[in-house]
Design goal:
By secondary structure, this protein is an alpha/beta fold. It has three domains: 87-164 and 358-479 and 513-531, Rossmann fold, CATH 3.40.50.740; 178-347 and 569-593, Dimethylsulfoxide Reductase, domain 2 (3-Layer(aba) Sandwich); 614-743, Beta Barrel (Barwin-like endoglucanases). α10 (241-254) packs parallel to α15 (323-336). A seven-stranded mixed sheet has the order 5-4-17-16-15-6-7, with helices on both faces. It has a six-stranded mixed sheet with strand order 22-24-23-26-21-25. Strands 11-10-9-13 form a four-stranded parallel sheet, with helices on both faces. 31% of the residues lie in helices and 15% in strands. The chain contains 29 helices and 26 strands. The longest helix has 19 residues, at 103-121. The radius of gyration is 24 Å and the shape is globular. The structure holds ligand MGD (2 copies), iron/sulfur cluster and molybdenum atom (MO). The site of molybdenum atom has 3 residues, from loops.
Length: 749
Amino acid sequence: MAGPPSIDPAEVQAATPIPRKLRKGVVTRKALCASCDIACSVVTEVQQGRVVRVRSSDNPIFRDNICMKGIVAPKGFAHPDRIRHPLKRVGERGSGEWQQVSWSEAMQDIGQRLNHIVAEHGPEAWAVSTSQWNTGTDHGLGRRLMNHVGSPNWISGVALCAGNTAAVNRMTYGWFPMADILQTRCIVLFGHNPKRHSWVPVYNQIRRAQAGGAKLIVLDPRKSENAEVADIWLPLKAGSDAAMCLGWLKVIIDEGLYDKDFIAQWAVGFEDLKKRVDEYPLERVAQLTGCEPEAIAEAARLYATAGPSVIPWTPMTDMQRNSTSAIRLQSILRAICGYLDIPGGEQLHGFHPDIVPESDIEMHHVLSREQQDKQLGSDTHPVFTYRGQRAFLEPGERVWGRQYNNQVTGCFMANPSATFRAMAGEGSYPVKAFFALGNNTLMSFANMPLILKAILNQDLVVVHEQFMTPTAQLADYVLPADSWLERPWLMDGYGWTSMYRPSQKSMDPPGECKSTFEFWRQLAHAIGKPDVVPWETLEAFYDDRLAATGMKFEEFAEKYEVYFAPPHFKKYEETGFATPSGKVELKSSVLQDLGLDPLPYFREDPPLGTEFPLMMFTGVREDEYFQTGHRHIPEMRQRAPEPYLFVSPGTAGEYALEEEEWVTVENQVGLIHMKVAIRDNMPDNLVRIPHGWWKPEVNPGLQNGLSDALKYADAMLCPDDADFLDREQGIPHLKGIPCRIRKNMEPPA
Ligand SMILES: Nc1nc2c(c(=O)[nH]1)N[C@H]1C(S)=C(S)[C@@H](COP(=O)(O)OP(=O)(O)OC[C@H]3O[C@@H](n4cnc5c(=O)[nH]c(N)nc54)[C@H](O)[C@@H]3O)O[C@H]1N2
Ligand SMILES: Nc1nc2c(c(=O)[nH]1)N[C@H]1C(S)=C(S)[C@@H](COP(=O)(O)OP(=O)(O)OC[C@H]3O[C@@H](n4cnc5c(=O)[nH]c(N)nc54)[C@H](O)[C@@H]3O)O[C@H]1N2
Ligand code: SF4
Ligand SMILES: [Mo]
């Protein structure tokens, strides 16, 4: 998930639109594409009540921002596979046999069964998984209802993508900063690789910044598209980002390249940090990262002296054994170089004063301390749970005006692995009801065999979806979801910035597809808590949130592309930082109080054995697909029909692998099938596995491997035992997993 692009809202608002010629009978709507999570501003062309075309915005600032997934959206959503009516399971769970029912019949039964489970096992026996950006219109209402019922067990894809970074960033300076890419002098990409068809707005910003003279440093084991055009490329070992940052700090501190005044006045723990960093001399860092000491030093110097510099948030460090340290180290680099909250640096936005944020909608304060303390995983991996974030309530109120400030919805989450264990009957208490909204849960975390067992062990599984995903195939009820073409949307920048952007509804949803807002509203009624979601319509809900602007949603959406509070740089000079000390905590008091190492460190991979002699990572996003989705769209599938692993020519030679041959990849968790692609830009002994493959054209049901998810999904190879979990957050290491490859292994029919 991504932040909003670093743009100048005044410039956007003042720009003269360049409208295009329309065919007769075609009208346009202003929308935000949600076919991925970056939300490009687009225009939809509507004819006879149907969207016939999606194209980029008329606003010149956004004109280059669109990719093939956005363009193909109308076809994707009109596909015959689209779920159009509520479905109730009739056969065994996972048999793929359904009966069509009405929304009210489905919701009444779901409400009754949920109430029964809560009465029998306690509210904590209800777990929910969503990725808010997919559902678009959840807006914290799910959390709100759960908080009123009394369940803390909400998990999300954001535990592996930005939500956890937000929670960890708070440890250092109290808010998740937004990189001002357009005005910066130097951009550092830790793996992160926006492309022409992946997070296009960020890709375009980086290119614009480079054209204006900004330097680019890329750290990537593979020579990626961005590495190709970088000033410095460091081909570090997968998963060694924290070690690399420790090396950079060593250079920056030893050579006095940091902002001494800022440190003296605004930071605590510098001496302790320095001592820790001294344990990582460049020779050691070179050995840990596989990069040359002089190249490491050169990159660190460029970052520290070219400034203002930015380290835009990167998903790469959200999915590692050393995630907490790596994220903290990036925060520390930003802070000690003096790049916090300045133009061209990393801005701490806070809330917009005029609009009710999702943090308020969620109403975390109504969940009792006793129930908060039952949050799964908070005993072992507390960082993003209530227990880990409680220390920020008072500082949050002091600086940002509210106790529970949630960013990217990542600050009060249960731990996914612990939740799946409880669902599978291996926890300290049972979880018996599981709801997945806009989240392909089965395939979107580690240890897929465990997640499968967990879902099969439930008394009630409810999925709100557009398509019959492998997760939906395991449900008792599948409720049909609307799409971004079919609803209005007030996009809040994931609670990370004070920028809001409106999206107009373009067409009616097909069949009985409904919004997530409507899902929660109907559920609130069905469980006897109608007052928790008192709004009749999504628009009425938006109108309420916008009340202080004096506008209703319709007017707001007509008038604005972006709505933004003017930046308030160095706010900390008035309020301090939103940490317990009010300072930048180089040594984290919060981690210390949780009994964790308050200083960043690097925990090495265990050495590779003979059984699994290769390292793999999951990732490198495919242009055609968003995560586990989109594979049903013929135009996309023709371009990328099968899952490919990438290996170097050297590794291919060593294992006698041939281009296009089918192989199996296996390890202690599972086995999957992939086709071989030999790529010059891969390093030796590292294998890349694509994320999220299944085949919607294969029949559903467990008897068919859940449309072949069990045959192709990367999550079948991702471990979640202690060795592979980050200590502080308990998120899985997806960037360095031992495996082996076997040749000539056609997938079984
Ligand atoms: N093993 C493994 N796990 C991962 C990753 C990985 O690389 N490997 N990547 C991680 C990352 S970076 C992320 S962002 C997460 C993403 O994890 P998810 O958020 O689960 O992402 P998707 O796979 O896109 O699944 C989203 C589902 O929402 C449905 N959907 C789309 N729009 C709507 C809507 O408007 N309403 C509703 N109700 N449903 C909708 C889609 O059909 C799709 O099935 O996964 C993380 N998990
Ligand atoms: N077309 C398309 N675009 C997408 C998505 C999609 O599914 N499809 N998903 C969106 C989402 S939710 C996300 S999170 C982003 C993710 O997008 P990115 O952040 O760009 O992630 P990836 O493409 O998985 O990998 C980026 C680079 O990281 C390198 N890498 C692998 N392991 C490591 C490591 O341990 N350290 C470092 N430093 N580098 C490493 C890889 O070689 C690769 O070149 O993409 C977004 N954009
Ligand atoms: S990058 Fe593509 S899929 Fe993502 S929001 Fe933009 S147009 Fe849509
Ligand atoms: Mo992501």
